[in-house]
Amino acid sequence: MMPTASTPAPAAPAHAAHPAHGPSPLARTEAFSDGVFAIVITLLILEIKVPDPHSIPAGQVAQELPHRLWELKAMFIAYVLSFFIVGTFWVAHHNVFKLIRRTDRMFMWLNLALLMCVAFIPFPTALIGEYVNQPIAIVVYGLTVTARSIMLVLLWNYATANHRLVDSELPEPLIKRVRGQMLLAPPIYLAAIALAYVNIWISFLLFAALQVHYMRPGQIDRHAKPVH
Amino acid sequence: MMPTASTPAPAAPAHAAHPAHGPSPLARTEAFSDGVFAIVITLLILEIKVPDPHSIPAGQVAQELPHRLWELKAMFIAYVLSFFIVGTFWVAHHNVFKLIRRTDRMFMWLNLALLMCVAFIPFPTALIGEYVNQPIAIVVYGLTVTARSIMLVLLWNYATANHRLVDSELPEPLIKRVRGQMLLAPPIYLAAIALAYVNIWISFLLFAALQVHYMRPGQIDRHAKPVH
Amino acid sequence: MMPTASTPAPAAPAHAAHPAHGPSPLARTEAFSDGVFAIVITLLILEIKVPDPHSIPAGQVAQELPHRLWELKAMFIAYVLSFFIVGTFWVAHHNVFKLIRRTDRMFMWLNLALLMCVAFIPFPTALIGEYVNQPIAIVVYGLTVTARSIMLVLLWNYATANHRLVDSELPEPLIKRVRGQMLLAPPIYLAAIALAYVNIWISFLLFAALQVHYMRPGQIDRHAKPVH
Amino acid sequence: MMPTASTPAPAAPAHAAHPAHGPSPLARTEAFSDGVFAIVITLLILEIKVPDPHSIPAGQVAQELPHRLWELKAMFIAYVLSFFIVGTFWVAHHNVFKLIRRTDRMFMWLNLALLMCVAFIPFPTALIGEYVNQPIAIVVYGLTVTARSIMLVLLWNYATANHRLVDSELPEPLIKRVRGQMLLAPPIYLAAIALAYVNIWISFLLFAALQVHYMRPGQIDRHAKPVH
């Protein structure tokens, strides 16, 4: 609608060949990813269903309802756990994208595959909520977050190989330390999966411990400092 | 985008070599939060289910359906109430972020915890809609909004302690007045929870009254004026 | 982003001391509204449920399923209708915001009330889909879009009274013509509601006719031209 | 954001009186579309339901649950397929919008119709998941993606006819090659639909093959290179 917004200025020769509008492809990929994260984190609550009124005999609602809500406690714990795990994934995604300078088709598909793992999380969350005592629920949950962690490593490896999509000055030791942080997750998740057959609460503890580790200020941030 | 938003120390000339793309971490946190608010406020309607056609005997739909819809009236009231409460939370979040100039890892987690409370609201909304006469429904609803209000206070305290994340010129009396407005909510919500066991309509009235108070133009805005 | 968008008065040197980050409050309100529109328009599909496999006798699925899908045709029509109605609402919201230059607390609440009507649309859409022959379904649908149309008029009246939130040079005749276009909808919607008790297809025809009228290029756009 | 995008041409003095706020209509249409894509891709998981605990006899959950999850395998395949198809649609939409320079009302409606097809995808995805052996499920799925592909061709034809909404220097051969890539999809989708009545796995293979073709780096990108 604005003349200048659509027609390239005549006095901008280099620019004339690139009459781009709006944000860069990288910024749009980032915004798209942010959208997926925001939606996933907000959808989690939809997996917790209000107790069906028809399942409670009339006249006993006042006594029954509090117990019914209390029975949902595994759901609530799964909700809080998943909320913070998705939140951590978002922060990690963020920190990686802060170091990325370019994008290409392959990077977009790797990012999409990562987002697919993130978008899958509401399913195992609901599964844990419904079947908190079943190791298989932990297995599905653990495999989902493991898959996402492996995708993050692949994304990082692809982007940093020969400094493909990052700054040419990004120091190699930093690249390695970031990868090291990322590689921590899969073995711990896999251990949590295996230990679910011993005691599911040990699994939960492992998930939570890794969570706390990643949430401590200054992990990737501190490493990222030099380039910021 | 502005130097003050991304550089913590004034003596950070390395920043010039920082080919950042896209918005600042603070702007992205804000956009992410806005996304969560927009999704929560729009998901609320999903909790209201259309009456099941199979539950109405054939041939009686024309007479039955209006009654069935009328029975949903508690749902509709809960919907409108929650819509405006989430709207108010969004405005409050907004007003706080207008005064924030920097971000750090701790701030992001506090903000995420606040968003978790907001994202939880569809559950107690559905609960009130299904069990409007049950005090326990009000209790769950009240605890959710209380938790969110306490998170907002914690967020504000963290950001303003020693002017950690706000302008160094932000006047102390303003910081205190904003906190004062925030501290108003928890006791009123808790009173509404307690009074639910006397009469749930008194509770609703308290929620609505606080709502109107916060919606009046010029509460936090007016206080915020000096820095705008 | 431009000074004129955030400072009402030209003589506001205090603005220099305003280290604002990110977009202006108006831009954020607009982005928030866009988010709500995008979510509503995408949620509509969730109201169409896949036929329950358990409701079809084993061995008859191949013959039964096509019929079951065909029975959903009212749902599909309601889906398409609502998709374009929400789309039109988005365009109209857009066109109004293009003329808005400032925002205030009251404007935000009016906008929120308008968004509440928009966010409500999935419910009557599902209702029409399930009870296509019931005039009451048309009534609920019609009242929802009428409420949204009235909110749009209120929003416009509030913003343009004494050129409160629009350009001082915005010509009065243009303001009136835009309002005229907006005032067209409520009586037509109300007529569609009344006629639902005669024949619901006349109602649909009226909704669709208004739709086509608003979708024609150059309605509000053409009027808006002078200021662009 | 780039100077040329926001600063009025010197030969457009009337423009100076236009204190526009926020992004251009084209950027907002793009952001709105991105929102719809992000929501659709994230909603897909909601179609996969956790096995109902009440449907499993108490005491048999440990043995039963893994089988129940295994029975969902068609759902998971449909999920992955749809995730990547929607992802590809997003990338294609993106690549088209990179070449668009202006927008008008007709373009917005065509884009909205395209988004409607995209937003519809969760329904046939759930259908395939529930009725993986039924050709009719493939038919509905295939028709949805065919409709979206035809809308993309219409959008492109409309935008490029007489260089209506694209750069006047955009070379005609490029326009044709992009259209050629787009025209590839409908016949293949229609073949997949027809072959569903022979063997549904041939259909899946065709969908996947087209998917891989479009996902290879350098399809539309390479064509688009000259203008970037």
Description:
- With 228 residues, the first copy, chain A, is mainly alpha-helical.
- In chain A, 71% of the residues lie in helices and 0% in strands.
- Chain A has eleven helices and no strands.
- Chains in contact: A-B, A-D, B-C, C-D.
- The interface between A and D is large, with 49 and 60 residues.
Write the layout of secondary structure elements.
4 copies of one chain form a homotetramer.
Chain A: H1 3-6, H2 13-16, H3 25-43, H4 61-71, H5 73-99, H6 105-120, H7 122-130, H8 135-160, H9 172-195, H10 200-215, H11 220-224
Helix pairs in contact in A: 3-5, 3-6, 5-7, 5-10, 6-8, 7-8, 8-9, 9-10
Quick synopsis:
4 copies of one chain form a homotetramer. Chain A has 228 residues and is an all-alpha fold. Chain A is built from 11 helices and no strands.
Helix content of chain A: over 70%
Sheet with most strands of chain A = none
Helix/strand structural class of chain A: mainly alpha
Distance separating the two termini of chain A? 38 Å
- Look at the structure and give the mean pLDDT of chain A: 83
Low-confidence stretches of chain A: 1-21, 219-228
**Proportion of residues in β-strands of chain A:** under 5%
List keywords for this structure.
homotetramer, mainly alpha, elongated, disordered N terminus
